[in-house]
Every structure is written in C-alpha cells, then in structure tokens.
Amino acid sequence: QVQLVESGGGLVQAGGSLRLSCAASGRTFNYYAMGWFRQVPGKEREFVAAISWGGRSTDYADSVKGRFTISRDNAKMTMYLQMISLKPEDTAVYYCAAKFTYSSTTYYYDPLEYDRWGQGTQVTVSS
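RESULT FIELD:
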C-alpha cells in the first residue's frame, strides 16, 4: 500500500496561487486513483478533485472548476493540485487520498471509497 505526504500549503492573499503536492511511497503508484479533499473545522470533508490512475480522467467540485487543476506524474509517484485565483473560502486543510483500482479511467468522489490518506496541509487565503 502507498503512504501519502502532502506539501505546498501556506498563506496566500486572495487571487494568489499555490501548488500542492502529494508524494507517494510504496511499491507502485499505478493502480491508485487519487483525490484531493478539504476540510474546515466543524464541517465534513469535502471533495475537491479526482484523477484516474491513468491520468486522463479528471473531475472537479463546481466550486473549484476553472481555478484548480489536478495532475499526476506516475514516474515520480506524485500528484499535484494547481490552485489559482484563490478565494478566502478555499481556506481549509487539504488532504490527498488514494483508492486502489484496476480501472485506469475511474475516479471517486466519496471519501469513504478511499483506502489511504495523507496527513493534510493547511491552505489559508487572506482577504
């Protein structure tokens, strides 16, 4: 199984950009569909974006479409979330997650589907 470590969070002004990384360790990064989720205190973990292990299928929450881009480099065993035009409401702890699957085109929205989670990285957007 993979172990996941997020990085790249921080404090940014509204309108700014950040790129989050999720580094995986283990035997392989292939066969793991990946997702980004975020959570603020007192609220449930929220879907942000997902990508199939083949990398060609992606989807986004409506709130981030056009501003966030999910991608992965299987050779580097790393997934990314490029975030632009950040808003104060994007402030949250961001988590990456992995789901083992043989399907190269499937991704998942439900956090309960995912097998492995990172520890999270804080993103704070000031107004």
